[in-house]
What we know:
alpha+beta, two-stranded antiparallel ribbon
Amino acid sequence: MKVVLLSPKNLILHPKNPREISNHSFEGLMESIKKFGFQQPVVINEKNEILSGNQRTKAAIKLGIEKIPCIKVIFASEYEENAFLITMNNKGIMGDFTEGLRELMQEIETGLGADFIFDLNLDEVLKDLLPQPIESKEPIEGEEGEGEEGEDDTHKEKTGVFIIFQTNEEAEELFIELRDRGYKVVLK
């Protein structure tokens, strides 16, 4: 397997790419590339279509990176290539985070600071450790039982998280961060 450096502008976003990421995640990807460099090669076919790395390539172009590492692969058939395309974009085979993630995140925060975690959107990975939504039969305090369309949303699923802080300053910082990201936050 040979890694070659190519201009990201010469690569073609695969027309059958089955995956997208949010703007928030894309910003984290760009910040990651800024901090660590372009460390994972893009996988392309013989037509320079991207099989793995569409988002990394877009980020490289936006960041003005002139050359990125690429690996060219050739499959026996279009069907095999399509199967590889799905496999490389399959979140289901990437595994799940374990409870060890919390400790690792704390180490990063201690060594590099909370801003480092938020800049890379590493806070997004903590979502995998959150409990599943629970069904609420009662509206959350301060909410109406009517939705925007006049529907009764009293029985819609709601998820709540209780966080205990050492200081009011910590609570205020997280409150502002979550509010700015569009979450409904209630202080009690």
